[in-house]
């Protein structure tokens, strides 16, 4: 395709069969990027041409029957044998079988495997290994390997998520994913070597960019063990835009349909209005439209941040890893929660037709909702963000300067809202900063009191984890609101566009407060009168956005073939499209379905059952 932007390439491949989840999805999304990010130049030279030309088709095999979240608990082992200079991969228990990796069951002939590395009798934690699982000649399964599909799932029907286990499978030492290697002088491109030990080793022994195993089994650990988690951070940073895209497409379908659908007399004898004119329909759909715009902006920000930080990591500067992890983990969770819930509301707003596959909405939902689970289960990801926020809080209390998007932490909480009838964007941001700062402090205080009460650190953590979750969610929400406001205020948009987009941004902020009012009012930050301002502003914004609602979804510019929806067609010919869809249903290709003779006819006309039995033998 010649498209270099990973997310754009992902979208255009999607266009061929939108939300069908390609059986090569993991090859593109995780297998290739893992080789790119975790392999040495020599390994890339060997594997990339094969993988880019589909000789090697691969997936990312990390999750096991017994462990998905807790990577350090994975049971698959890779034990180094210095005599043969090989790793022995083994699945020692039932729960160590790899389970869930996409494209694993029948498609892939290779995979990058996350396994516990053992050398010289010691465990060194999870590392990545390149493993061939099927012949590149006839696709037969290689000896020492058991692989297959895991069966039907909630969705993802076109992806052969699979299981995989190893029975003392030997792979060459060079198959441990290593990055950067050097003999003697450190080549310029290996600047990272300042982060790992320099030693003269035979050229064929790839030193790890992040860690290395010498031929005698000596292990040199990386500067940061979490560098091996890099592929997950990349995908988390990409999922935000993916979730935003799913929500935006659902908004296109439901808002266009709501402009076509007319239902119920507005008054006795009156004409049936467009359902988009019902305030309750606007209340459910317009905030989702605003959320789609907000998440698209957040997705751009987090992916650009990933690219910047990853560039620094490639140059050996790891100091921004914690921020990137906290941002990508939290926004991945926040965006997939918001998008999944929003797509379901869009479906419900389309009534019965929303429940039809013809609407395109079920497919979008089952494609986006697993994002709450894969690449880091959402609650776990939110708690990872909370872990970072707690560190920021203690640094703030020690008077340390905090990075940009957490500078609100530790602020004075005694102030009140500046909210007036106008509902200024600045007052909205202040409200979200106050809420997040208060929840971060409350979680920290809770932890402190538990520890002072004698609880151990891990007991205090678990005993505060609901409040930690609230704090992380508020932090992500603040990020999305502030990022949206910054985009509106920074953009050199035409005055008309700014006016429209300012209303959309205001609605996003106002609606978020009204839907989480307790967290904003618990300490009296808002007065009752100010809440009234917000409620009236929300209703006014519905009226303000209504004339531009269809234009705002058209602006996403998703072609009909991507939406795959009879309800969301650009030409609005919904009913003809639904009728054509029904007529084309396979069961309508014969007037009487074959099952009539076998199952119905004996009931309706028992006397002629013998005919039925004749037919059934056909
Ligand atoms: C191009 C694509 C476009 C769009 C994408 C669209 C769709 C998606 C495409 C494909 C997806 C399809 C399938 C999904 C594939 C998968 O699901 S792959 C498997 C995913 N699995 C996971 O994500 C597992 C989640 N678990 C973890 O990440 C870790 O176990 C954990 C982070 C929860 C915990 O790790 P631990 O090693 O136990 O660490 P800890 O003790 O909690 O923390 C120790 C310190 O390490 C820091 N840290 C943890 N992770 C990272 C990281 N990734 N980067 C940087 N730092 C990290 C942590 O913050 C701690 O630091 P402290 O300073 O607080 O000590
Ligand atoms: C469609 C799909 C595709 C996938 N593709 C792949 C793939 O290609 N490769 C791959 O390796 N994996 C893949 N996975 C697996 C996925 O990465 C894991 O399912 C995910 O990481 C969650 O882990 P788990 O299933 O063990 O859930 P668990 O961790 O068992 O989660 C169950 C519950 O326990 C809670 N919980 C767990 N730990 C904690 C904690 N520390 N604190 C608080 N609560 C906790 C969670 O919040 C959750 O509510 C895929 C999964 C799906 C659904």
UniProtKB/TrEMBL annotation:
Task: Indicate what this protein is called per its UniProt record.
Answer: Acyl-coenzyme A oxidase
UniProt keyword list: FAD, Fatty acid metabolism, Flavoprotein, Lipid metabolism, Oxidoreductase, Peroxisome
Recorded hits in Pfam families, A to Z, give: ACOX, ACOX_C_alpha1, Acyl-CoA_ox_N
What is the protein's major site of localization?
A: other
Location in or out of the cell: Peroxisome
InterPro entries, alphabetically?
Answer: ACOX_C_alpha1, Acyl-CoA_ox_N, Acyl-CoA_Oxase/DH_mid-dom_sf, Acyl-CoA_oxidase, Acyl-CoA_oxidase_C, AcylCo_DH-like_C, AcylCoA_DH/ox_N_sf, AcylCoA_DH/oxidase_NM_dom_sf
Q: Indicate which residues the UniProt annotation says bind FAD.
A: 63, 102
Keyword Lipid metabolism, does the record have it?
yes
Q: Kindly list the GO CC terms recorded for this protein.
A: peroxisome
- Cite the annotated pathway: Lipid metabolism; peroxisomal fatty acid beta-oxidation
Cite the active-site annotation. Answer: 375
Q: Belongs to which family?
A: Belongs to the acyl-CoA oxidase family.
Sequence ranges assigned to domain Acyl-CoA oxidase C-terminal in this UniProt record? 427-605
The residue ranges of the Acyl-coenzyme A oxidase N-terminal domain are 5-57
Q: Does the keyword Plastid apply?
A: no
Q: Which domain of life is it from?
A: Eukaryota
Give the Acyl-CoA oxidase C-alpha1 domain ranges.
Answer: 229-390
Q: Write down the required cofactor(s).
A: FAD
Listed GO molecular functions? acyl-CoA oxidase activity; FAD binding; fatty acid binding
Q: Which organism is it from?
A: Mytilus galloprovincialis (Mediterranean mussel)
Instruction: Choose any GO biological process term that the UniProt entry carries and state it.
Output: fatty acid beta-oxidation using acyl-CoA oxidase
């Amino acid at each position: 395709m010649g498209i270099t932007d990973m997310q754009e390439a992902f979208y255009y491949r999607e266009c061929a069969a939108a939300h069908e989840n390609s059986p090569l999805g993991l090859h593109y999304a995780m297998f290739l990027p893992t080789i790119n990010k975790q392999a040495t130049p020599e390994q890339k030279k060997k594997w990339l041409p094969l993988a880019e030309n589909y000789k090697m088709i691969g997936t990312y095999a990390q999750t096991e029957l017994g462990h998905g979240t807790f990577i350090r608990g994975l049971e698959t082992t890779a034990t180094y044998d210095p005599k043969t200079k090989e790793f022995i991969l083994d699945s020692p228990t039932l729960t160590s079988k790899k389970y869930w990796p996409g494209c694993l069951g029948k498609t892939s002939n290779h995979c990058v495997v996350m396994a516990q590395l053992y050398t010289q009798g010691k465990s060194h934690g999870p590392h990545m290994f390149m493993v061939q699982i099927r012949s590149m000649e006839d696709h037969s399964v290689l000896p020492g390997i058991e692989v297959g599909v895991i069966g039907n799932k909630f969705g993802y029907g076109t992806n052969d998520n699979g299981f995989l286990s190893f029975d003392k499978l030997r792979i060459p030492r060079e198959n441990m994913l290593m990055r950067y290697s050097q003999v003697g002088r450190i080549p310029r491109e290996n600047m990272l070597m300042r982060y790992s030990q320099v030693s003269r080793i035979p050229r064929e022994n790839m030193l790890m960019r992040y860690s290395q195993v010498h031929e005698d089994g000596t292990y040199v650990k990386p500067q940061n063990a979490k560098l091996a988690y890099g592929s997950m951070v990349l995908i988390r940073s990409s999922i935000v835009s993916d979730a935003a895209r799913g929500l935006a497409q659902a908004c296109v379908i439901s808002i266009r349909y709501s402009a076509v659908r007319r239902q119920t007399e507005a008054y006795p004898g009156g004409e049936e209005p467009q359902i988009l004119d019902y305030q309750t329909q606007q209340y459910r759909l317009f905030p989702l439209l605003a959320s789609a715009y907000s998440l698209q902006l957040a997705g751009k920000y987090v992916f650009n941040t990933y690219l910047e930080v990853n560039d620094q990591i490639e140059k050996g500067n790891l100091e921004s890893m914690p921020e990137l992890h906290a941002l990508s983990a939290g926004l991945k969770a926040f965006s997939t929660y918001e998008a999944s819930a929003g797509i379901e509301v869009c479906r419900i707003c389309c009534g019965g037709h929303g429940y039809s596959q013809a609407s395109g909405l079920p497919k979008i939902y089952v494609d986006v909702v697993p994002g709450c689970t894969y690449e880091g289960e959402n609650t776990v990801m939110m708690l990872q963000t909370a872990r970072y926020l707690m560190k920021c809080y203690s640094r703030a209390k020690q008077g340390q300067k905090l990075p940009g998007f957490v500078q609100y932490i530790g602020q004075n909480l005694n102030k009140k809202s500046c909210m007036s009838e106008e509902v200024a964007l600045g007052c909205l941001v202040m409200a979200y900063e106050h809420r997040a700062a208060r929840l971060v402090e409350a979680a920290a205080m809770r932890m402190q009191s538990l520890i002072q009460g004698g609880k151990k650190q891990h007991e205090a953590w678990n005993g505060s984890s609901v409040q930690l979750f609230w704090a992380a969610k508020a932090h992500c929400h603040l990020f999305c609101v502030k990022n949206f406001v910054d985009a509106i205020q920074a953009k050199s948009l035409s005055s008309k566009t700014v006016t429209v987009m300012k209303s959309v941004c205001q609605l996003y902020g106002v609606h978020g407060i009204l839907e989480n009012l307790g967290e904003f009012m618990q300490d009296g930050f808002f007065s009752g009168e100010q809440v009234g301002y917000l409620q009236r502003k929300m209703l006014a914004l519905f009226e303000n956005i209504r004339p531009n609602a269809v234009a705002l979804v058209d602006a996403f510019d998703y072609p009909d073939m991507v939406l795959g929806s009879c309800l969301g067609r650009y030409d609005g010919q919904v009913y003809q499209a639904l009728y054509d869809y029904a007529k084309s249903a396979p069961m309508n290709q014969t007037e009487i379905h074959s099952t009539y003779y076998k199952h119905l006819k004996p009931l309706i006309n028992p006397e002629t059952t013998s005919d039925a039995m004749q037919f059934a033998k056909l």
